[in-house]
Amino acid sequence: MSSTTFGQKGIEAVHNKEYAAAVPLLDKALESSDSPAWLLARAQAQQQLKNYDAALHDAELAYHVAADRGSGTSRKLMIDAQYRRATIYFKLGRYADSDCCAKWSMNLAEGRPARENDGVEKNVDKDGNYTLNYEDAVADKKSQPGQSGARGGAAALATSVSTAKTGFENEWNRAYAWRSQALGMLKGLPEDHPGRKVSVTKIPARPVKKKVEPVVDSSDDDEPVSTPAGNPTKADDPAPGSVPDEKLKLRVDFYQTNQTVTVSIFVKDVKKDDLRVEFAENQVQIAPLPREVASYVKPGDREATSTFILGGGIVPSGSRWTATPRKIELVLQKAVAGVKWGKWGEEKIGAVASEDVQTATSSSQPAAQVSAQQAQPSPSTAKAPTPPKPAGAPAYPTSSKSGPKNWDKVVDGEDDEDNKDVNAFFKTLYKGATPEQQRAMMKSFVESNGTALSTDWSDVKGRTVETIPPEGVEAKKWT
């Protein structure tokens, strides 16, 4: 397989949020070429896997490689590299550094010189704390590309400066929205918190490329090469046991009803006739499983077996499974009907004895671990006890691709790629505005029929804000 194919597959895996599978594919691709696009894809995957040092290494190297190449896509890749630095520093709790990188991403999107001395990182006081505040960042729109007056609908804030389009308007908006998160976090930090310190530079030090073995180019992927021991090994296979368990684990999705939990296990090239699925009261064991991330795995190897420790007790005889070439689906009958599982469970690589494990539910969910026999009322019992609702469990069945959501406790700030919709941004903007700015936002938005949004009360308080629709759209009065 060529490096280009590895790179394309790696980027595709990142797009599908299969981060553990993406890293080894991009490792292979980057052995022969320092493609900034591949480096940025691997940086995103490493960030989602919480390998922040590796992610930062790739983002900074991508910036330098893109700048060196000077091709037509270089500026876009440099913008993306600065944005990736911003998201990584945010995850590390370095919020001042995160805001600086987001601002540099905006500057590049505006078409400003990459080596311009803009002094962003010098906004610090005598104690070294970042002095830029949330309100300053919200008002920092004078150079927003592609804006003219109040045009652009609800997605554009009112501005009095007309600027030319650069082709990077979406990238600018993305970095601008990210700044609201970084500076929002800074608002609540104590004065001596390290997250207030600025330690980044606009152009990062060039990282040293990690030393890797060259790719063995073979015209036939199935052609074995001889090793000193005389054992045939595929040229693109890592050594057995060299892939960590976390990267071997498969992508799993699930939904549940009062009676069953349906678990979907995504794995390619499943051979249904060879598959062995064993149900127990607290786990399901499956073998042999092909591992795309470690293609050396053979039937009988430890890596070819997975034990799925379940999030609650099941009735093995009432459970079933089906398989297609790309997915294994388990339909598990709950031992206690009506009890919601907080999660489906967890995957363990290799065989695990049933008696050596407990269900993967938390201690706050004892009802999910009750056996089917315990749930049945005895003849002397007038009424069976009602199982308590597990703490933190979802209120209703769900088929969401991201799994069940606990609406009583929504975690803030996770997944930088998913927190970018316009409504969420405006909620954050409104919440952080002063009462006067909120009045201006409400008045301008309502009077303009949603086509303008201003935070300047002195500008809008004495006039009716005109409806100015986007180009190509005609405003009509309701009759």
TrEMBL record:
Biased composition (Low complexity): 360-384
Domain annotation SGS: ranges: 395-479
Family annotation (Gene3D superfamilies): 2.60.40.790, Tetratricopeptide repeat domain (1.25.40.10)
InterPro entries, A to Z: CS_dom, HSP20-like_chaperone, SGS_dom, Sgt1-like, TPR-like_helical_dom_sf
Domain CS as annotated: residue spans: 247-345
Sequence segments annotated as region (Disordered): 188-243, 360-418, 451-479
Descriptive protein name: SGS domain-containing protein
Provenance organism: Podospora appendiculata
Organism phylogeny: Eukaryota, Fungi, Dikarya, Ascomycota, Pezizomycotina
